[in-house]
């Protein structure tokens, strides 16, 4: 990171500068212009992405999980749909006021506390099938990098040391503050005792008695929260980042302060080209989910009552920028959507295997594929509109189901290739979004399970045909009982005339 010692403020107005480079064809909401802007990346061979990671002083809740899930969905879209080589970096804040307070209250050493909750965080991420970042940077392992950035800000007169020993960023020496969010003028009655301005923020906090600290040219202390992300992101990506992401609650002051100090550090008018912020998760008829409101639900509690795929579907059904309402009804809808897709896949396979014989209008099917694919492309290029993608898939599945379950049967062995095309479109889109609805093994020996189910299905099929031929109601009721009991175990039996099939 090279910078001039005579670094000065370069801008007077809050403007977003459209970057030069490769136009991805995607439009993303821009919190500075308040419009959707073309996503242009500096280098078409790779895209830089930085995410603000967790402060590991407590267990994560599903509000955190929804943020990381939605960012994971966007990353998958960029990588798998638009074929962009995305390089992702995340920090872990393992020293902070909250961590120190929790350590003191629980009488657990800081390092032991942070290691415990970081391990729990990654376990949650894995169980939710959220991809881990390519690079993970812990604050305590990169203190020298952070101190170097603070020293450079001191040299270019963008930071100062107050009487209490703390180093503050001088907002008054930077003329483009308030870029990401409108900020009202400060009230002189709330001036801080040691700061030049109440808006100045700490880069290096002077150590208090008994607290963890590191040595520095300005005395013993530890880094402030905002400088951590700026220093670590700049260390990996340099003076410019394509995408910086986090929850909407981080836009101010965290991201605002990151942008200000990083622009000052690199003598640039723009450090991050695109900010992506996810909406809050709300409980039904309640405020946002947060630890301060004491209304949180842990990830483990969530997964005790639902599946990771159902939670992902719920996140897909709500736009990443919008607040997401978490309720039993909403989760039930997400679960129903998933089951409809599973049933659709099974129906298509039964058609292709000859268990369902119907006339298919190839021209109508071909048009359906074309229209659906175009809508999906338009939705994903329009600020990652996943709710529209889900709606489009639902309509597509419904239309094909109506055809395949119609009474217009035929005896021809020919099959419509468009059913295969539609099935592939649905599977490919769901897989790209992180939903794998392919067959899951129900035991360690998956092949044994399949073999056993085939034997059971064939036996029930023969018993059912015997009951039909002899008009034996008792045999037919027994077959229905087997089907009902297997459904309770997640296995679906379907009868197609004289033939039966099963699916999970």
Automatic annotation (TrEMBL):
Gene Ontology CC annotations of this record: cytoplasm
Keyword list, A-Z: Aminoacyl-tRNA synthetase, ATP-binding, Cytoplasm, Ligase, Metal-binding, Nucleotide-binding, Protein biosynthesis, Zinc
Top-level division of the source organism's lineage: Eukaryota
Keyword Aminoacyl-tRNA synthetase in record: yes
InterPro entries noted in UniProt: Cys-tRNA-ligase, Cys-tRNA-synt_Ia_DALR, Cys-tRNA/MSH_ligase, Rossmann-like_a/b/a_fold, tRNA-synt_1_cat_dom, tRNAsynth_Ia_anticodon-bd
Function, in words: Mitochondrial cysteine-specific aminoacyl-tRNA synthetase that catalyzes the ATP-dependent ligation of cysteine to tRNA(Cys). In addition to its role as an aminoacyl-tRNA synthetase, has also cysteine persulfide synthase activity. Produces reactive persulfide species such as cysteine persulfide (CysSSH) from substrate cysteine and mediate direct incorporation of CysSSH into proteins during translations, resulting in protein persulfides and polysulfides. CysSSHs behave as potent antioxidants and cellular protectants.
Lineage, broadest ranks: Eukaryota, Metazoa, Ecdysozoa, Arthropoda, Hexapoda
Cofactor: Zn(2+)
Native source organism of the sequence: Zophobas morio
Classification via CDD domains: CysRS_core
Listed GO biological process terms: cysteinyl-tRNA aminoacylation
Domain Cysteinyl-tRNA synthetase class Ia DALR: 379-426
Catalytic EC class: ligase
Domain tRNA synthetases class I catalytic stretches: 43-334
Family to which this protein belongs: Belongs to the class-I aminoacyl-tRNA synthetase family.
Subcellular location: Cytoplasm
EC numbers: 6.1.1.16
Pfam families according to UniProt: DALR_2 (PF09190), tRNA-synt_1e (PF01406)
GO molecular function, one term: ATP binding
Catalytic activity: S-sulfanyl-L-cysteine + tRNA(Cys) + ATP = (S)-sulfanyl-L-cysteinyl-tRNA(Cys) + AMP + diphosphate; S-sulfanyl-L-cysteine + L-cysteine = S-disulfanyl-L-cysteine + L-alanine; S-disulfanyl-L-cysteine + tRNA(Cys) + ATP = (S)-disulfanyl-L-cysteinyl-tRNA(Cys) + AMP + diphosphate; 2 L-cysteine = S-sulfanyl-L-cysteine + L-alanine
Name the record gives this protein: Cysteine--tRNA ligase
